[in-house]
Amino acid sequence: MFKKGLAGLLFIILLFSSLCAQEEVTKVQEVWTVRNNTWLLWKSYQLKADAPIELKQVWTGTKVTPIDSYASCFKVTLPSNEYGYINYDDLEETYWVENVDSIKFYYGLKWGTGDFEILPPGTRAYRLETIDNGGIYKVRLGDGRIGTVIRHYMKSPYFDILPEVNQRFVRIYSLEKLQKKLTGKTREEAIDFIGPASAFIYTNNAQTASEFYFRYVTAVENKMRHKGLKISYDGNMANEITLLGAAKKSIAERLPLAGLIRKLNLNWISNSKNAYYEKHGENWWSKFRKRNFFTKVIGFIVSIILLFLFFSIPQFISWPFRRLIIAIKPMGNGLVKFFNFILLTAFMYFFFLVLTLFIILDQFLIIAIFTIIPWFIFMRRNNSNINYNRCPRCHTMWSAADKGSTHTGTEQSKAWKKRDVDRGTTETSTERIRHIERHWDEEVTTTKNYLDHRKCQVCGFEWDVHRTETSKHTIQH
């Protein structure tokens, strides 16, 4: 019985191995051909004052293996095992294009004139020329007919077939951390620490020296940010790190304690290495919001609530510490509110630093506003909570009973507001006159003052808390 079981197990293992081997045979990597003499690139565009992006000449007819797509480029591996980006116009295979939706195909050589037909989705065509300032493709269909299509609607299917690099993916480090983590380490260790390299080339014929390029890495030196990183290797050991992008000023990097936070590696919070590639397809929430106007309104409201909750994280995290301070009986209410202020401000500031230093790198003012608003709301709420619920004499929290309120007075203030009423237009033979009737309305602000009476159920102490209610109404004239 044991032998039969062992034989069956061996048969399953052999069958599985055979199927795996067969699958490997069918998954032959595609080989493309370079169409024009071109350059191997480490990113797809050139900014002023940036290091040149041309790394290595690639000649017409070179066979390359595609890896992924990024913007208008494809990352390919050369026969020498070097890799980097090549513009899609310089690769023969990308001249075959397809349309996702039905599109118009004009027989004339100028799109939008003459006879046309509707090409069904998935029509394959060969791109002959790009015309009209890059907006129109001249193509040849499979049956030999030549015409024009809108470039935006017909593209290489490889942009969808191959993995697409996430253009928003970024990793940011201090130069000191990069030097500590990478100098004297291997290329494999660099990829393990940072993520996939954008380009790799040898710098001598013996292939004993090489360079790694990282398009998405931002390095900080002297409180300035540089986008782009090059690591030079002697053999397989890193011996030099070069910052490629032009230095850009950053307010966030100059804030107090920013240097201390920068020493941490918090890239995993929003840019973990598995986010390097785009994840295509809409989730159920995105689909729900697009159904109709009602779902759009719900989506907007929920998004506002989630945004507020996100920026309320410091309030939630700091609560145990603030609760501990509230419980210290020898501390008066004024001192408790002061320490609450210090704690919430510290947590909010740390949260703000993490956001601007690692997550949202180029929206400093917006993040500052979104941080200050919840901070102000929670400071008032926390102080009000202490005023109403912590006894000023015995300092017991949640001991107060409500003993009603007394109205102590009402105040009113007035302001004039401009209001224009459109009374239509009149036309003459020479002009058109628009009639606007201007009104000045009174905006009345009413402030009611109250004293809310509280009584401690532990020591019997009574105290009052001042409260105001404000309302506005407009008197039109």
Word description of this protein:
- The N and C termini lie far apart (102 Å).
- Strand 20 and strand 21 form a beta hairpin.
- With 477 residues, the chain is of the alpha+beta class.
- Among the domains are: 93-161, Roll (SH3 type barrels); 311-389, no CATH class; 400-475, no CATH class.
- It is 29% helix and 36% strand.
- The protein has helices at 2-26, 158-161, 175-182, 187-193, 258-262, 284-289, 293-310, 313-326, 333-359, 364-389; strands spanning 32-33, 38-41, 54-58, 63-70, 73-77, 83-87, 96-99, 103-106, 116-119, 124-131, 136-141, 146-150, 154-155, 171-174, 199-202, 209-221, 224-234, 237-243, 248-249, 400-427, 432-456, 462-475.
- The strands form 6 sheets. Strands 14, 15, 16, 17, 18 and 19 form a 6-stranded mixed sheet that branches.
- Residues 1-28 have low confidence and may be disordered.
- Helix 8 (313-326) packs antiparallel against helix 9 (333-359) and helix 9 runs antiparallel to helix 10.
- It has 10 helices and 22 strands.
- It is flat and about 90 Å long.
Summarize the structure.
By secondary structure, the chain is α+β, with helices and mostly antiparallel strands. It has helices at 2-26, 158-161, 175-182, 187-193, 258-262, 284-289, 293-310, 313-326, 333-359, 364-389; strands spanning 32-33, 38-41, 54-58, 63-70, 73-77, 83-87, 96-99, 103-106, 116-119, 124-131, 136-141, 146-150, 154-155, 171-174, 199-202, 209-221, 224-234, 237-243, 248-249, 400-427, 432-456, 462-475. The longest helix has 27 residues, at 333-359.
